[in-house]
Amino acid sequence: MKDTIWNVPGAERSAADRQQADADGFVGRRHEISQVRRILAKTRLLTLTGAGGVGKTRLARRVSRVVPQRYRDGVRLVELATIDDEDLLAPAVAAALGVRDTTPDLVALLIEHLADKQLLLVLDNCEHLLGACARLVHRLLRGTSRLQILATSRQSLGVYGEQVLPVPSLPIPQPGESTRDIARRDAVRLFAERAATTRPGFLVNAANAQAVARLTRHLDGIPLAIELAAVRLRTASVEDLADELDERLEVPAEGGPGTLARHQTLRATMDWSFGLCSSGERRLWERLSMFPGGVDLETAEAVCPGQGLAREDVLDLMIGLVDKSILGGAEQHGTGVRHRMLETIRAYGGEQLPAADAEALRERYIDHYRRLAGRLRADRMEPDQIDRIRTLKPELPNVRVALDLCFGRPVDAPAGLEIAAALWGNWLVAGALSEGRYWLKRGLALVPGSSVTRVMGLWADGLLAHYQGDPAAAADTRECLALARQLRDEAALAFAVQLSGVAALSEGDTRGGIALLEEARTRHRARGDVHAVGITLYFAALFAATTSPDRAAAYGEELVRLCEERNATLFRAYALYAVGMACWEQGDWQQTEARMREVAAFWSVADDRWGLPQCLEALAWTAGARGRYERAARLLGAAHLLWEAVAASPMRLRFQARSHQECAERARRALGAQAYRAAFRDGTRLGLPEAVAYALEEP
After folding, report:
1. How many whole angstroms separate alpha carbon 299 and alpha carbon 284?
2. Spatial separation of the C-alpha atoms in residues 455 and 461, rounded to whole Å
3. 3-class secondary-structure state, position 270
4. pLDDT one-digit tens code per residue, 107-148
């Protein structure tokens, strides 16, 4: 992002005055940025502390933009404000790092992934997960050598070796300063920048400088308080605002910065902003505080009306909250537009929400996200599979709230288990297996007895457990099948038999596994569930490739035709991959290469971190079949790096192990051990985009 030179309104500029601002209006903090950079040069853990609204997050984000050149492997930001469960901390870090979550011991996987990385990890808003953050940071730093962590929190983490930098308010004018000196203060510069967006052409000049100085002193230089005040210039002058703050904050006009504690100042400013909203805007502010991931108009209209708030008024009220800077500006997500609240503003709104309104809101919220989870399932053979995944991604923080609400009361627990099970495919594609299983296990613990909901929860948890290689999958599989038979529910029994087939294949029982999947396919077809038929065909095609390639190819081609009939692009990519594997076992490496190149291109766009290493692996084999052994070794190296990121290995996959070994041995013999190692090492140094581009080059 290109920086722009900041212009100080109403004052002459010198070189010292020319501080830069981000496109998002970042102002000042030159001294703090310098301090952070200096401390990071000497320590592995730095925590920025300070009161809410003081600007810790913006400072951390600014630092993350100006220091990447120091870190060979870059900077990664993890937003923790939307996570309330400490068990979801490690999965959130894994997602930010692009680590495929396929193991029960996710922290060990993170340590392995970060072991040789020179990377800055930014953990933003740690205070509500303080103990969990401290434990995770301690393990990560102890298990790695070059990782550095920058945290933001209202209090220190308390980890050995931690350096703490308190983030102060922005510098404010002192009594008696000249117009020029007032205009140069960062608190004033922030006010002027925000005021200019509210009142175009606004300048700090001799006529208003003293009122601006008085106002920023009243607000103690707190950035969030200043921004909320600047919005009021639509309907009031600077002088009127300063006078109003005189009265509301009950401080002398020339009071110093220590007159009120920061949290009292911010609280008073929030009370002031809340009081200036209409009754409808206040109600909507309170209710939108339920959405940590932000909200679009459709969702707000579905969940927020009732108890004195009409659906047809929501749009105008949202516009009013945007105008008052309570709701953030529009963020484009696909074809939709979302608005978010700063965490401090959202927390304030939640405090104001009356208990009676919260109870009614709870029911609408759960119902909305239960229906949304069903509508955005990734395991549906539909044309919009990728759009579903992308649409759900920004909603995940809100889905977590819905799940927490469900599991907070036994009566709502079945709805929570239903949501978690419906999203099993989304957890898988996103690489969030541990998070998915966390919610599924919570639901299963709260939904005992005999029900179809429990059967489907066991089915989803069992599938994810098999992907993780967790022995607990066996218990889920047994109970799922027994319970489905007891209930005599045809749909539940079809899925339970399918899971049993996957379990048998995972344990090496190819004949038994295929027989069970054939039975599951027959049951799914009898019910007309084409989506479940597709999943069953994929498992059958993939796992039968090594022992019965002709049969596997038939399964795969059937799935390809089914996907093309329904224009299901994500399903089709998996089907083509399975066909490619069957072609390889049939000795047709040219067809394998063609399939894998097509699939790799698609999975690269879809950012499928589980599929890509498998494609690169197979393309290494076809390069070896061509006699391109250096290319084969380099692709094996590129695949190796991706395998490590997903805590997997081709040697753990029955349908990959033999071909992997044969390819590596042939390349090593042809090139010699030293040349093979050099080419393999070159492959490991390719980043993901470079590795995919290399794999897609004409062989």
Report:
1. 12
2. 10
3. helix
4. 988 998 888 888 999 999 999 999 999 999 999 999 999 999
